[in-house]
Specification:
Blueprint: H1 2-9, H2 11-58, H3 60-66, H4 69-118, H5 125-136, H6 139-167, E1 183-193, E2 224-225, E3 236-244, H7 259-266, E4 271-273, E5 294-296, H8 307-312, H9 335-344, H10 348-353, H11 371-385, E6 390-392, H12 401-416
Parallel strand pairs: 5-6
Antiparallel strand pairs: 1-3, 1-4, 2-3
Length: 417
Amino acid sequence: MGLLVGMEMGWAPAVAGMSVFALLVPLQYFVGTKVSRARSRTAARTDARVSSTAEALKGALALKMYGFERSVISRVSALRKDEEDSLRFVTSLRAISSAIFFVIDLVAIGAAILTFVARGGVLTTPGTFFVVSLMRLPKLWIGIFSIRGVETCAEALASCARIDAFMALPEAGGAEEPTRADVAAELRGCDFYHARVGDGVDSRISPGNVPSEASKGAESATGALEDNASAPLPALRGVHLTLRRGELIAVVGSVGAGKSSLLNALMGNMAPTASDGVVEAGVDHLPLLPRRLAYCAQEPWLAAGSVRDNVCFGATGRGCDAVVGDESKAPKDNTALYRLALESTALIHDLELLPHGDATLLGERGVNLSGGQKARLALARVVYSGLDTVLLDDPLAAVDNHVAAWLIEPVKGLLLG
């Protein structure tokens, strides 16, 4: 392009016009870099605001009861203001980029023509339109595509960095399966942390972090539960627990004592590390955990789909096609287990009230079910799984007392088999 302009007007006007484009390229790079960084900050602040808003909505009843509305409103408003500031900054940078896009070719054409006239040139209509057409060609590339390219590359690098950090995390292992046939799981004196990598907590026991004999002592009480309010304090300290097959074990404690954390440790969702005053040098204290287990959470989790899908949970050939009231459509292998899971959790009557029985589609997080129905549905999923090791985290908290009393014996009988 510069060569064609030079052939029409001379080298000086061509250099003047091309210099404008050359000077604006670093400016566009600077603006693009700023926009990409600002968008990253905006995304982080948006995540924080959405997270706080979701927490407030989930705990709306508690917030109203304890009068925490002002505190929550102030917190969410502050997060929203930070997000607005980031959005305003990004918008300002985009406005600068748009302004550059609209004036870059005009400035370049003006510089070339002024230089040509200043050197004594005479403008002609064909020559002027020819130069104007040539100088408009790089407008999209320099005014739009360059800044978009910088933004996209910066975002791609940031995404690759996040993926790389995630892929570099060690496996969430650190546990072996029990070797004894009568033992389902065993915790052998580890400390357990909610944090994994990146919080200063070693996720595996190694000879380097086994304490010496001198460090054994005061905190060696079996099963002592610690407050996890501030890292790196362990959520569970020095827990010794053996779960034998065929046993029914209940863990009782006050609110915040660590009952749910204990279940998370048994599921392998917490980082085990050496426990002060418990671990002996040369002794393996990694937990022994089952490879497969069933878990019923304190807050029932329901997948998008039908009631039947939430009970069978993707299992095939296990009675998953058994529709309440029309069992002729069900396969013969595990239809009885499927219906038994529904009967033992008192769901038969509830399914008869639904428009399509167990084929009824559930809304977002089971919004068309009551709290007790969701809890019993999650419990039916556990019963239907047929696994040997079952962890129940207060599954009857959402049901009425008389329903809970009725559920205990049938469910216990099925689980203990």
